[in-house]
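This follows on from our talk about sequence and fold. I would like you to pick a protein and set down its sequence and fold. Go ahead and set the record down below:
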Amino acid sequence: MSLTVLMNAGPWLSVPPPGYGGIENVVATLVPALRRLGVRVVLASVGSSTLPVDERISVFADGQFAALQRPYNQVCGISQAHLAGVVRELHARDDIDLVHDHVEAVGLATLTAMGPDAPPVLHTLHWDLAKHPELYGGLDGGDRVRVNGVSAAQLARAPKALREHSVGHVHLATPLAIDAHRRPGVAKGEHVLVLGRITPGKGQDLAARLAQRVGFPLVLAGPVGPYHRPADLAAAGDDARLNPDVRFFHDEVARYVDGDRVRWVGTVAGRDRDELLAGARATLFPLRWEEPGGTAVVESLALGTPVVAIARGCLPELVEHGRTGLLTADEEELGDLVLAADLVEPDECRREAAARFTPAVMARRYVALYDQLRRRSTAPTLQAA
């Protein structure tokens, strides 16, 4: 395959990220599988990225994620500076066949504004599409700029203009799904795990309250704002509460965290994260928003851990109730479902992940979308007589 793709991961974290990093983990999972299919990848990220690629371009030496807690007028130029570097690169060369963009809002706006002489663009939507209504509601990228979702449910809630630019959805993947059906099971512990950034939409306060009421041990694993370790958050001053996730943790979650029934362990990465996840009785997703993608869901299935969740967003697409997890629309029923999670067979979870959520499955789907978009953007326009 002769195809060169500029993969725009953005300026916030390195690829792969040092711990938590949703979009950067998606890119780190996708790129090796694309390269195995013969796609040449130019990665636009930060200088500290270590993912093997064919070329790398960067404006910032390291990730700028910590700056996100600062006032807008101090950080608003970060993503723009990164995109300006991408645009300079596209102007300076003619060998980029397609841009695959993952930068929220400003990536789509900037690459659309480049006009018809720029390469085709596929912009992947990783987030809540109720945001940015003026941008999404007025999008006009013609045949050159298209978008894809990470679930059908996400796209179903998109503004009309965004849906008209959509080429479909591609579910997220995990390297853990490779040969997952052949991986031997591990002994399950008693703990239940909530894995992900601690924020109101993820519902860690509900999980902690249920754990205390129903009586199951709960581990919360993930950062609170820019703080990846409990000691770092404890040492932070009052200004830390300017971050909404820090404020949510202190106001709604901390009251339940007793170090015994409910523990917050901060960000857990690599083998430690996998062992914690594989040994869990279940992973719990007490969602208060329409989850668009669900990386942690497919990771849980790949490691043979049943999913217990509120049936919102992508969850009904990823989890089969009664076979790979237990779903409900009732928050109060979640506690009872956690106690019933032992009825779900871990081998079924691993088989499902191996069939649907490998990097190769995701990469083949994206290559098909790249091909579709390139054909659209090069098709001759019929002139009216």
